[in-house]
Structure formats: structure tokens, C-alpha cells
């Protein structure tokens, strides 16, 4: 006797597949150095950091998670000065600096977003420091 495939089973299977796919896309929690950094910040600094962290999700596709790029065409942002990053984003937004991907990305940012992103990436460990700390 064959069992009939119940539609609820399809829904359950579909839900499981979606859950697995979404879990692969979620950002893992902060590592120990990130947790230590966040704990050392004052409340206004922490809020600025978290604002930058949220905005940085769209940067990760090119510049890598935590601003450490794995692609030679996209620079790492981790550890760069906040002033340098802020000036670059402001120039992209205003059109003084042009790039096919960065100009449209920066146009969607306000001053608070730029300051938060610059602050967030300036506090990230550069690739060499991050690798040394992991060892």
C-alpha cells in the first residue's frame, strides 16, 4: 500500500530547505576580539559602532566581512582611518570621486551613515593583525 504525499509534508520540507539556506546567510556572532572591543566602548561609541555594523552588511560583498577583502580589485577597509573613509564616501556621494559600484552605494548614505561606517571600519583589525591574533 502506497502512502499518499501529504501537502503538509511538502510545506515542512520547503520550510526546512528555506531555514537551511537562510542560516547559511546569517552573520555569525562577533568573535572574542569583537566582543572585547564592543565592551570597551562608551554608550555613544557603541551605538555609532552598531549603526556602522548594520550599514556595513552591504559593503561585505566586495570589501569582505569586517572590511577584510579577499578580492584584489576591492580594497580592505579594516583599520583605515575614519577620516580617510569618511572623505572617500563623501567624495563618492558628491560625485567628486567616481566608481561604477561605489557612487550609487554612497548616494544612498547620509552624513550619519558615513560617520558610522567610517567609525566601524576604522575599529576593525586589518588583515595582517587579524591573522596574527587568530594564531
From TrEMBL:
Ranges where the Cytochrome c domain occurs: 40-125
Superkingdom in the source lineage: Bacteria
PROSITE patterns with a match to the protein in the record: CYTC
Swiss-Prot/TrEMBL keywords: Electron transport, Heme, Iron, Metal-binding, Signal, Transport
Signal peptide: 1-19
One Pfam family per UniProt: Cytochrom_C
InterPro entries per the UniProt record, alphabetical: Cyt_c-like_dom, Cytochrome_c_Oxidase_Subunit
Lipid metabolism in keyword set: no
PANTHER family registered for this protein in UniProt: CBB3-TYPE CYTOCHROME C OXIDASE SUBUNIT FIXP, CYTOCHROME C4
Protein name, UniProt field: Cytochrome c
Source organism of the structure: Arsukibacterium indicum
Higher taxonomy: Bacteria, Pseudomonadati, Pseudomonadota, Gammaproteobacteria, Chromatiales
Amino acid at each position: 500500500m502506497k502512502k499518499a504525499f501529504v501537502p503538509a509534508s511538502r510545506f515542512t520540507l520547503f520550510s526546512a530547505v528555506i531555514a537551511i539556506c537562510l542560516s547559511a546567510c546569517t552573520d555569525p556572532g562577533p568573535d572574542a576580539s569583537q566582543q572585547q572591543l564592543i565592551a570597551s566602548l562608551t554608550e555613544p561609541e557603541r551605538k555609532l559602532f552598531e549603526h556602522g555594523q548594520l550599514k556595513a552588511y552591504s559593503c561585505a560583498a566586495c570589501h569582505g566581512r569586517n572590511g577584510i577583502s579577499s578580492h584584489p580589485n576591492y580594497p580592505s577597509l579594516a583599520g583605515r582611518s575614519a577620516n580617510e573613509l569618511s572623505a572617500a564616501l563623501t567624495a563618492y556621494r558628491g560625485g567628486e570621486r567616481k566608481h561604477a559600484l561605489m557612487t550609487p552605494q554612497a548616494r544612498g548614505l547620509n552624513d550619519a551613515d558615513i560617520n558610522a561606517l567610517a567609525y566601524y571600519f576604522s575599529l576593525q583589525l586589518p588583515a595582517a593583525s587579524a591573522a596574527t591574533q587568530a594564531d
